[in-house]
Description:
Elements lengths: L1 E5 L4 H12 L3 E6 L12 E4 L5 H8 L6 E4 L5 H11 L6 E4 L13 E2 L11 H20 L3 E6 L1 E3 L15 H8 L3 E5 L5 E2 L1 E3 H11 L9 E4 L5 E2 H12 L4 E5 L1 H7 L1 H11 L4 E2 L2 H6 L9 H13 L9 H20 L4
Parallel strand pairs: 1-2, 1-4, 2-3, 4-5, 5-7, 6-15, 7-12, 8-11, 9-14
Antiparallel strand pairs: 10-13
Helix pairs in contact: 1-6, 3-4, 7-11, 8-9
Amino acid sequence: MKVLLIGGTGTISSAISELAVKKGFEVCLLNRGKHADFAPQGVKVINADAHDEEAVQRAVGDLTFDVVADFVAFEAADVERDCRLWRSRTGQYLFISSASAYQKPLSSPFITESTPLSNPFWQYSRNKIECEEFLMRKYREEGFPVTIVRPSHTYGDASVPLAIKGEKGCYAVLERIRKGKKVIVHGDGTSLWTLTHNTDFAKAFVGLMGNAHTLGETYHITSDEILSWNQIYEIIGSALGVKPKIVHIPTDVLSSLHAGFYGGLWGDKSHSVIFDNAKVKKAVPDFTATMRFDQGVRRSLRYIYSHEEYKQEDPQFDAWCDRVIECYESVVSELPKL
């Protein structure tokens, strides 16, 4: 099977490209070449900016593919371009959407692929919904061979999933936990969340490739392990050998302090979600997520702490955490008691 992955070196796509190569697929990556080190051995790299339609046409030439999967399509213009580029060049186009597109607030925490799509809190999610609607219209009207995949919170070796972090990634929060400093968790930490290791995600995704029964269908791919945010931080702390000092701050307060938190918290992480993976398991019968979070996070920590490029300190975020926690605890201590 001949596969083109547009992007192909991110958290999700790197695991997919690695597994696809192991399964004997002929894998090509289309990207700008800035992260070529993440490309597994055995893949062909086509250098072009995926958002430059003419450059992609020149780079690809007359090549055709059994499967094209775009990991860097975020807006309607991106998938409109992809329809023009790949309409006659592929038998299946996989669009990577997002489980954050599901209705917020949820009418039920149990999510299937038929759960309505609506997220008034996060523009990112609304853009993904617009992409899905365009692609499904093209499928119905023109037979464009789309399959839509909705990941939830997927992580890999180079990242640890967190509720609140700065622009430089997870290391600053990991160090706060390791050093016994207080860390922020939204709400009371009891909302339920699902974390999926990228190697598990790849099993299902690769299983959808080339499957004629998936055309015109939508699938989310997640683990079946359900954890509260308090449990997530306790597991991270355990892997670091300490008990985390969690400070719970209301979601609305945090959202008012940083524009970047609004969509990610109100539009996603603050809601309890339980995914029903029956549909993808029917399409890929041997799919089972086997990496528990306590196993996956230890693997991530070993990788991060052994690679200097991921040990990025973030003094600005660190100082912000200290100040927010100090102010919040001071205000709470002054509240009148009955």
